[in-house]
Amino acid sequence: MPKKNGRNTKGRIVSAAWKLFYEQGYENTTVEDIIFESQTSKGSFYHYFEGKDALLGSLSMIFDEKYEELKAQMDPEMDAVEALIYLNHELFTMIDDSVSLELLARLLSTQLFTKGEKHLLDRSRTYFKLLQQIVRTGQERGQLRTDLTGNEIVKGYAMFERALLYDWCLSNGEYALSKYASVMLPMFLGGFRPPQQRNII
């Protein structure tokens, strides 16, 4: 039980922080604001985070919460490529709507220079587990090619998503992330279809 409470406390802090970062900006948000919004204590905050900067790496937690929601809503019979497109669209729509470009750029830059754990590449994340499940099922059903391993397909998909995120930041958000991805991703994923299904989106 204490473990669950700990996860809930950390999750409340993370959710409150990112809500405030979006609403009032990173620089204008203080640790005290986050503690007040999350209804936790200073002791709890510093138990999980050294300071405000340490929260930048926690965006992957917000993403994984979204993936948990989507996993529960998805039709288990959905085609594998359609499932991957659906996941991407829902996450990128969330980013368009509630994650500022500045904060996403900060997160991506911290991942480039960190010498420790790279949260976006953590294979124990819900994100990677869900992708592996979808890809494995898709290969078993003949919806995805089998001359590549499931891990290779997952790696390719994750790399393409990160490329879209980096480009969006580099372009200073001059286009809608989710709309652009909805055009580019189906073309990319078509290459993972078996040869006889390449014309299927």
Q: In terms of topology, how is this protein built?
A:
Elements: H1 2-24, H2 31-38, H3 42-48, H4 59-73, H5 80-98, H6 101-113, H7 126-140, H8 150-170, H9 177-190
Helix pairs in contact: 1-2, 5-7, 5-9, 6-8, 7-8, 8-9
Question: What would your notes on this structure say?
Answer:
This protein is mainly α. The protein has two domains: 49 residues, Orthogonal Bundle (Arc Repressor Mutant, subunit A), CATH 1.10.10.60; 143 residues, Tetracycline Repressor, domain 2. It has nine helices and no strands. Helix 6 packs across helix 8 and helix 7 crosses helix 8. The longest helix is centred in the N-terminal third of the chain and has 23 residues. The model has no long low-confidence stretch (mean pLDDT 86).
> How much β-strand is present in the residues?
under 5%
CATH class of the largest domain: Mainly Alpha
Order of helices and strands: HHHHHHHHH
Mean pLDDT, to the nearest integer, reads 86
Distance between the termini: 45 Å
What is the molecular shape? elongated
CATH topology of the largest domain: Tetracycline Repressor, domain 2
Name the helicity range.
Answer: 55-70%
Please identify the structural class as seen in this structure: mainly alpha
Which stretches are low in confidence, meaning pLDDT under 50 for 5 or more residues running? Answer: none
Figure out the total of helices: 9
- Annotated CATH homologous superfamily of the largest domain: Tetracycline Repressor, domain 2
